[in-house]
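ok so i was messing around last nite and threw this chain in just to see what happens. nothing serious, just curious
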Amino acid sequence: MTRKERWQRLLDLLVERGGLEVEPAAEVLGVSAATIRRDLDQLAEQQLLVRTRGGAVPHGVSYELPLRYRTSRRAAEKLRISEAVAALIAPGEVVGLTGGTTTTEVARALAARADLAVGSPALTVVTNALNIAGELVIRPQFKIVLTGGVARPQSYELTGPLAQQVLGQLTMDTAVLGVDAFDPADGAATRHEDEAAMNRLLCERARRVVIAADSTKLGVRAFARICATSEVDVLVTDTGLPPDVAQGFATAGVEVLRV
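result:
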């Protein structure tokens, strides 16, 4: 297990348990207590947790792992989902992408498509995610439109009035959303109201709304609502979606693609 993988596992355990003790963590990861102590010290230096005597607790009242530490979660499912979403996009479209691990994979899948290797532009991508813009800007056949705004370090997303002002002046063919929750009755949602406001506006400015989310995020609720279920055209998810939840989406008029 590499140090990055070990840190990822430690942070996952911290979220799951609400706190860590050195000895049990060392036993779970199969390393020495000294290694865990060093890991916790280094993670504390990055302000990803708070060290306590004998362990660690989450940093702050509201805890969310930064994007760079969430990329390995359900990686196989996200890869299948991203490829299926990318296949829905036609050459020449204007595509809106929110931030998040799954939408980042969608951006990479779009960049890998052979039919989008040339064009003027082959695709126009509108995004408020700094990392997505950074990955795609090196491809000259893609026109990249990045909103202004204030950056959230956890998700690399730009939010706030400046970002909304830019996005409000644009129109898109397809908006691809990453969400924290999507429920047939309560709609799509995220943990943060500033991200929800940006995602909501992205939906309003697009002709088609696609949600890309693994099954753990479906049939559940989150704090800040993005849009009603009826405003979503397509849901792309994995085969772990329970049949009754899938039926709820279908009844609301959402096309469900399980990959």
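not much to say yet. The longest strand covers residues 206-212.
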